[in-house]
Write a structure and sequence with these properties.
The chain is an alpha+beta fold and 71 residues long. 30% of the residues lie in helices and 44% in strands. The protein has a 4-stranded antiparallel beta sheet, covered by helices on one side.
Length: 71
């Protein structure tokens, strides 16, 4: 859940830096549970205003998805 969501936040921090720290916002939905030892990857694609973000497991199933924006 929230621990997996930090992967997205870290990804956004790496790409946006200070604007993310000063005004970053995540609007996500938790789609499926993540097991303790499950490998998860975070992704972000800029569709225009903000980023489409998601995390997926090794089977390609999205476990979290949503939008990220920053000032």
């Amino acid at each position: 859940g929230k621990l997996v969501m930090t992967l997205i936040s870290r990804l956004m921090l790496e790409h946006l830096g200070t604007p993310w720290l000063e005004g970053g916002r995540l609007d996500v939905r938790f789609r499926r549970p993540v097991l303790v030892d499950e490998t998860i990857a975070a992704w972000a694609v800029p569709p225009g205003a903000g980023f489409s973000v998601w995390c997926e497991n090794v089977r390609g199933e999205r476990v979290i998805e949503g939008m990220a924006t920053a000032k």
